[in-house]
Amino acid sequence: METLDVRPGEQLALVGPNASGKSRLAAAFAGRSGAKFITFRDSYGSYGDRSFFMQQRWNLFTLEGDPPSAGEQLRKEALASDDPQAALRRLDGLSALFGLSPLLDEPLVTLSSGELRKFQLTRALLGGPEILVIDNPFIGLDPRTRTALTHLLADLSASTTLVLVLSRVAEIPPFITHVIPVSDGVAGEKVPLETYLDAVLPPAVIRMRGVMVRFGERVILDRLDWTVRQGEHWALTGANGSGKSTLLSLICADNPQAYACDIELFGRPRGTGETIWDIKRHIGFVSPELHRAFQVDAPALDIVTSGLFDTEGLFRHPTEEQYACARRWMGEFGIGDLAERPFLRLSSGEQRLCLVARAFVKDPPLYVLDEPLHGLDEAQRLRVKRLLDRFCGAPGKTLLMVTHYPEEYPACIDHSLTL
């Protein structure tokens, strides 16, 4: 740890298993560098208060006198600092940044675990430290609060160097620039975040760096950084017009602006000689735009079979084995009896099921499903949702799914991106 240097613009994470010595090394570094060090415990109560007992939060009437409010404690510490006026101004700014203002009049002991983190961060920053070392910032927090805290720390990283102590790779927030692995009390070499993640996580299926898409003066995607790794299952959310379909068009090789962006698909940068068909053969795709464009009045079996060739019609004669594969998938989706019926004479819901089966027929490594349950009745929605979990949630399969109905997401969803 003596060799650790934190350079301007860097945000660090010390990562290692339990009992690897991360916290001890972080505390030692903070002591030598003059950084502010705070630790979060999976508990409630006023930190450092030996009079705290487990039920105290719900038994305020047992306390002598009025317990101090969060605001009183913070103002007291600000006034005791070397520059009280600057600390008070900083308190006002931090309270606004962290959304702490509504909590300042509440007794400190009544704050929730997430609220206590905001309180501790504010207290630690009153003196304006250049470096803040935080041990276990996300322990004990629900997903929504973890996300909120990540955003708060990202905002904070614009003005303060952060060193986070973490036990899980999945907890490393995207604003971190470098990682120091720790094992048996020894800090390893500092490496860029992307290099570290590529070494310890499955390979990236999609990697976007600073992606921007605009049409005229309208910016659709603005400096988007996004990595999707093999075996991850993503929910892609956002309001109408937020850029979801545009993002998917970059992935599925349908948008020519992809060539002007820094995008890697399946480990290969766009524009390095791959064809549209090289990309599409790895992807099972369905979307409202595809449905509208599919004006092929061929038998439903041919529509599903065309997914093997990534065409909007069947322009070659499939083998019996390929036809049998398409029939099996139609059976899975409950539309086996529609095989010989013309596609354009099916109901909208039946057509959508054919197109979903078409996306699955080649058993691709990546599923890109934009509103796959659109127009389906309740029984069919439940059936398809179960199939999504069964096939998209299989080991090694990667899923990107868009829907405006959260209840439609399969249980295998483990990541989300909101535009």
By secondary-structure content and strand pairing, the structural class works out as: alpha/beta
Instruction: Please tell me the overall pLDDT.
Output: 85
CATH fold name of the largest domain: Rossmann fold
Largest sheet: 7 strands, mixed
CATH architecture of the largest domain: 3-Layer(aba) Sandwich
Note poorly predicted spans.
Answer: 42-61
- Order of secondary-structure elements: EHEHHHEHEEEEHEEEHEEHEHHHHEHEE
- Share of helix among residues? 25-40%
By CATH reckoning, the class of the largest domain would read: Alpha Beta
> So how many helices?
13
E-strand count: 16
What is the overall shape?
Answer: elongated
What's the helix and strand layout?
Layout: E1 12-15, H1 22-33, E2 36-39, H2 70-79, H3 84-97, H4 113-125, E3 131-135, H5 143-156, E4 161-166, E5 178-183, E6 186-187, E7 191-192, H6 193-200, E8 204-215, E9 218-229, E10 233-237, H7 244-251, E11 262-265, E12 268-269, H8 276-280, E13 283-286, H9 288-293, H10 300-305, H11 320-332, H12 348-360, E14 366-370, H13 378-392, E15 398-402, E16 415-418
Parallel strand pairs: 1-4, 1-5, 2-3, 3-4, 10-15, 10-16, 13-14, 14-15
Antiparallel strand pairs: 5-6, 5-7, 8-9, 8-11, 11-12
Structure description:
The chain has two domains: 12-200, 3-Layer(aba) Sandwich (Rossmann fold), CATH 3.40.50; 204-418, Rossmann fold (3-Layer(aba) Sandwich), CATH 3.40.50. Residues 42-61 have low confidence and may be disordered. The strands form three sheets. Strands 1, 2, 3, 4, 5, 6 and 7 form a seven-stranded mixed β-sheet that branches. The protein has 13 helices and 16 strands. Helix 2 (70-79) runs antiparallel to helix 3 and helix 11 (320-332) packs across helix 12 (348-360). The protein is an alpha/beta fold.
